[in-house]
Known about the structure:
By secondary structure, the protein is an alpha/beta fold. The strands form three sheets. A seven-stranded mixed beta sheet has the order 4-10-9-8-7-5-6, with helices on both faces. It has a four-stranded mixed beta sheet with strand order 1-2-3-13. The protein contains 14 helices and 15 strands. β14 (389-392) and β15 (395-398) form a beta hairpin. α4 (89-100) packs parallel to α11 (308-323). Helix content is 37%, strand content 17%. Its cofactor is pyridoxal 5'-phosphate.
Amino acid sequence: MSTQIASKSQEFIDLEDKHGAHNYHPLPVVLEKGDGVYVWDVEGKRYYDFLSAYSAVNQGHCHPAIVGAMNKQAQTLTLTSRAFHNDKLGVYEKYITDYFKFDKVLPMNTGAEAVETAIKIARKWAYEKKGVAETEAKIIVCENNFHGRTTTIISFSNDEGARKNFGPYTPGFVKVPYDDAEALEEALKGDNIAGLLVEPIQGEAGVYTPSDDFMKICRELCSKYNALFIADEIQTGIARTGALLAVCGKCSCQGHCERQETYSRPDVLILGKALSGGAYPVSAVLADDEIMNVIKPGQHGSTFGGNPVAAAVAMAALDVVKDENLAQNARELGSYFREKMNDYIQNSDLVTLVRGRGLLNAIVINDSEESDTAWNICLKLRDNGLLAKPTHGNIIRFAPPLVMNKEQLDECIEIIIRTLEEF
Ligand SMILES: *Cc1c(COP(=O)(O)O)cnc(C)c1O
């Protein structure tokens, strides 16, 4: 097994190891440059990026339109705080609310902050609009969820690593199995339910893809029981799954129509990651007035949220998604990828399954969750020029930038299959 690291790379790894907290376990590769679907390490070796920073880099590395917008704004005005107005925020707020068709946006920076924001909005809505008794509001979440790393969010995780010894935990959450309509309806019948917080596909859990109609069921049940349907599209949103939003399902409109049979419109939409094109932290919560207006001055905020650089970057990042038809590209290349992987799996004992939607996919390795087979495959993929990481012990996620073309994808499929055949 080739795990040899060149000495220059090793020096950078040693620096992180000595001076940085050990809260990650990165694949041993040290990157110094990115362009489109490619990244280069400090030795000059080129790789296909098949993680895209957990789908933050949907538009490809260092997209000139996004970097250009960021540079231009950075040289003009970077931060005013929300104590004053600036000439970018309102323009951005109009742009993003038109784009996703909600009345209002609340801008934040990271995904976890946006999830926290959605939780606060849902609770306040429950008390002030639904009439839930003070401090009694509950939010339904799904087993194996991933919504970020804050104290409240890990309180309703069932990942031991994320939770253990970080208590006491924030109360007010009810857990149901993912993709289980009956359990969801039972939970929604409970008292004091503010809403349902759910990922359209569970990315971190291993690209766990629910039944085609699960989002529709979530929408219908939340309406039936007067609870907010809160979609965490931080990883699935912004073209990744072959539609502008994963709640758009199989519709080919890229989220720009309102065909009710396919679009399960959430009450609260949470975006992050690719909203930034990978350039700068930007997240957002979108909702209509009757929900968003429960937040009044002084009740929520962030020093950097909605700053001019973030506003410029997010508009450029969303422009790229539309201009370059990234949703359509993800949809077409995604089906092609799964088709090719399924052909391979027919004759493979190593891989049991490929699943996903658009260009958010994963393969399941025929080994235990505790085995290091998936990790070793990722090391071999790295040696062969492609970077991916296991999500759980035996699952490898494949999520390249959406600016990939068919020739590049063919080369990647060849690398992946050749690597798997070496095992
Ligand atoms: C990444 C992610 C988050 C957290 O985003 P951060 O920017 O890392 O805080 C939340 N929800 C989902 C579904 C994610 O994939």
